[in-house]
Amino acid sequence: MISFGGLKEEEVTRVGRAVLPKHLLEDVGMKGLEMVRCKMQPRGIVCVTRMPRVMVETFVREYVRGVEDVVGKEVKSVGGYYTGFVREGSVEGKLELHFGEFVGFGSSTMVSQHQLFPVCKDFHFVDEAEKRKWHALQRDKYAKPLVFHDGRLAFRPTPLAALAMYMWLPLGIILSLIRSLVFICLPQNTSVLIEAFLGMKTRINQCNFADANCGDNSGRLFICNHRTLLDPVYISVALNKQRISAVTYSVSRITELLSPIKTVRLTRNREEDKKRMEELLKHGDLVVCPEGTTCREPYLLRFSSLFAEVADEVHPVALTTKVGMFYGTSTGLFKFMDHIYFLMNPWPEYDVKFLGKMSTRMINGNCCTGFEAANHVQSEIGRVLGYGLTKLTRKDKYLMLAGNEGYV
To answer: Could you tell me which residue ranges the Phospholipid/glycerol acyltransferase domain spans (predicted)?
Structure first.
């Protein structure tokens, strides 16, 4: 009742689709999943759970292949809002629609608690001591890659971890506000030192830095993968330059006002956006994130080829971030809170690596199109970071996580 009472049905469905699969995958034991998959051959299975069906259905259908149906508790709703009460007989009534032999999986403490186990022809259970010996399911063993997920928590919310988060929260809010003010109000040289004192870790790889940080030349185009809204700020800090700008799309007005560097909105009109970027390059350096949206996991989304039409040479930048408590990205209505959540982490980390400048007209001595140049830059950044390459886009992400096409 505490978890569901008063929540919209569509919002709970979104959480079950966009947030919970990531946490549930982290709690899967490889041995347990193998046991289930063995019983699934050659026929599919019906998954029965004591949890509300809406919480686990997406996870089970997409990450436990072969599941024909999910049977769980149904929570009552009135006018599109959950009441928190469970419909009586919702599990047993739905199971009557399925025929066949039942096989049960669970812990030894559940045997006497679940009314369905007595009807099982076969039953497999494991005690807590044995379960502690299991290895977590490795990412490469997932039924499908986990590229997108939403929600703010970057840790598995066990009781102790959740308690630690709630105890940190008041201090984290104050620390985030102080860190934000330091970024906004103080010169970059001073802010970097103070931010380090406040627990923020920044590493800059300068193996090919001479191309990106020599002289006072202006008009260089920096292309980076997109981790958080702070990507252009950290590139600016690494370059130690004030005269740098970034292009954005669908960012809140509050975020634009608080930005320590100049930001210019894109319109999604290709010709208009190209003119704006060319104009910005006439007045200084420009940072572009061609993925168009952030990705938390070690994958790169498809790079837009627009930057290849704007400049003959670009400077790729590979970025990685590490957070221990909160993600600094979201697809919800409160995107202006993204940087606040990132700065609320006890020890947020940013790694900035400048690659050598690359031509957008030639690849290995051969002429190339803008699309080929974009794919080449994506592959080089992916190679340096060890990230997987995808053809997914901002639209794919928002359709999956938020149910819209990314117009926030």
So the answer is: 220-322
* Complete DSSP assignment for 264-322: EE--S-HHHHHHHHHHHHHSSEEEE-TTSS---SSEEPPPPSHHHHH-SEEEEEEEEEE
**E-assigned strand segments in 201-284:** 201-205, 221-224, 244-248, 262-265
Q: What would the two tokens of residue 136 be?
A: 């977590």
Q: What gap in Å lies between CA 144 and CA 390, rounded to an integer? A: 13
What tens digit of pLDDT does each residue of 181-201 get?
998 888 877 888 899 999 999
**Among 75, 104, 100, 103, which Cα is nearest to 90's?**
75
Two structure tokens written together for 157: 């919310």
Q: Token digits for 46?
A: 């019906």
Tokens 């076969």 identify what position? 122
Check: CB of residue 311 under 8 Å from CB of residue 299.
no
What's the chain's Rg over C-alpha atoms?
A: 25
Q: Are 299 and 145 in contact (CB under 8 A)?
A: yes
DSSP track, 98-145: --S--EEEEEGGGTTT-TTGGG-SEEEEE-HHHHTTSPBPPGGGSSS-
Q: Are 368 and 394 in contact (CB under 8 A)?
A: no
pTM for the structure as a whole: 0.87
pLDDT, residue 93, reads: 65
* Least confident among 113-122, 127-136, 233-242, 296-305: 113-122
| Cα separation, 340 vs 122, whole angstroms | 51
CA distances from 8 to 4, 48, 84, 237 (A): 9, 24, 11, 42
Most confidently modeled range among 94-108, 171-185, 232-246: 171-185
* pLDDT digits 0-9 by tens, 115-166: 566 666 666 677 778 778 888 888 888 888 999 999 999 999 999 999 999 9
